[in-house]
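Hey, I'm writing a tutorial for new members on how sequence and structure tokens pair up, and I'd like a real worked example in the thread rather than a made-up one. If someone can provide the structure for the chain below, I'll link this post from the tutorial.
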Amino acid sequence: SNTQTAPHSLVVPNTKKASNTVKVMSASTWIVEPSLAAKRTINPIRNVVDQLKLVPNPEKRPIKLSIGDPTLDGNFRPPSFVTDTLFEQNSKGLKYNGYAHSCGYPETRLAVAHTYSIPDLELTLDDVVVTSGCSGAIDMAMGVLGNEGDVFLIPLPGFSLYETVAGNRNFKAVFYPLLSDQDWKVDIERLKQLIEEQQQLGLRVAGLVVINPSNPCGSVYSKEHLKEICNVAETYRVPIIADEMYGGLVFSDDVTFTPIATQSGPVPVLSLGGIAKQFMCP
């Protein structure tokens, strides 16, 4: 708009008229611009979900597949030992109803370390950080590995929040394909090509995101395939961000979830998980 106003005035659109006329109120003029990071921060899921205009069938209850909340339709409930423990601890005292250590309660971190230790690597509480949801863990993991301009390799299809965080932090998101005709396995050869292409451009590949079980495809990788992925990471010296949020939701007797850290050898792995899916407590 070319409309000019006197100092200390506030321009307010006059919504009662069809034209672009304005009225001037006595006040200070404020123009608050969003930051560049805010402008870069876009969740691709919202571009789809927010524009859906579906007429519901009055005779059928819709099943919402756009949000990973296992309790949304009442299909899953938190186990009683979880709810009972939470109630007991918070009703008897205030020990767990105050500010915790910035990395989480030591007891919690020790329990996680004990659960996820493997024969060749015994974890300690110093290896565990409790975050505000796995979304917070994604942001933290990418933030500690990458600098502005660095590359993160993200599966396609995959969880869109990785692209959102990349945009916010000014990382470069590069998508590697999953093979739909091979149970959504990683296209290993294409993954290698993408890493080499980025390195030839002089860019640093800060991390390889591996989502297993796959979100949104639901596939569960074998030990052999996880080893293939780790071999690529080792060859090109790329740390792995292992999104294993759905590790506790494998329903087939024919497949077994395997944490990628058990197959990674010398490759550094940041493993992400959470109680939202494993204990139905989103």
